[in-house]
Specification:
Elements: E1 2-5, E2 12-15, H1 17-23, H2 53-96, H3 103-110, H4 120-137, E3 144-145, H5 146-153, H6 158-171, E4 175-177, E5 189-192
Antiparallel strand pairs: 1-2, 3-5, 4-5
Helix pairs in contact: 2-3, 4-6
């Protein structure tokens, strides 16, 4: 194959050695084709067609269209990669927050489809287990501070303790504050609600 630069455009096209040798015989194309090897045995060869300016224009047009298609195909891959990375990032962020949506479910959400998460009773069971653990370490008739409760449960992250243990137990009416007028008081303690 030889590269054939067209004089009217900054375009090169690939042509076979036979076409390149026949083009080099056209006066307007003389000296344009630089084929690395010229086959001496093929110098008598007559191609089954005559290369005309119209044929050259068509070849150039086809080459241009192939180039455009290649560029569009390569450009189309990039948004797919970005979308895939975005989906995996969203799914990983949700997993950190203890949300169990799969990659397929996140993809469906981004496509505007409806997705079902975990059944409510499964989430409620998890919260109930955490509240039950809190009640186990908080004996009836005893009031404990947040730090003492966290220590008893083996927890170190205060925000997780409040969100997953303390607030659900308060909302369910299972425990109460010893000083409800000052919920952020450093002396605040929690006790079981008498049944």
């Amino acid at each position: 194959m030889a590269m054939l630069p067209l004089p009217s455009r900054n375009v090169s096209i690939k042509v076979s050695a036979a076409v390149a040798s026949s083009i080099s015989t056209i006066p307007s194309m003389a000296g344009v084709v630089h084929h690395p090897f010229r086959l001496q045995a093929m110098s008598n060869y007559q191609p089954p067609l005559t290369v005309t300016p119209r044929i050259l224009a068509l070849v150039a047009e086809v080459s241009e269209q192939v180039g455009l298609l290649t560029a569009y195909r390569n450009a189309a891959l990039t948004p797919q990669l970005r979308r895939g990375n975005r989906i995996r990032t969203i799914q990983a962020s949700l997993a950190i927050e203890n949300n169990t949506l799969s990659v397929e479910q996140v993809t469906a959400l981004l496509d505007g489809k409806r997705v079902l998460g975990l059944p409510r009773d499964q989430v409620t069971d998890q919260v109930t287990d955490q509240v039950a653990n809190l009640l186990k370490v908080l004996p009836a008739g005893v009031a404990l501070k947040t730090s003492d409760l966290m220590h008893q449960l083996g927890l170190s992250h205060r925000a997780t303790f409040r969100k997953s243990y303390l607030h659900p137990a308060l909302a369910a009416g299972l425990i109460e504050m010893t000083d409800p007028d000052s919920p952020r008081s450093p002396k605040q303690q929690y006790r079981r609600v008498a049944k």
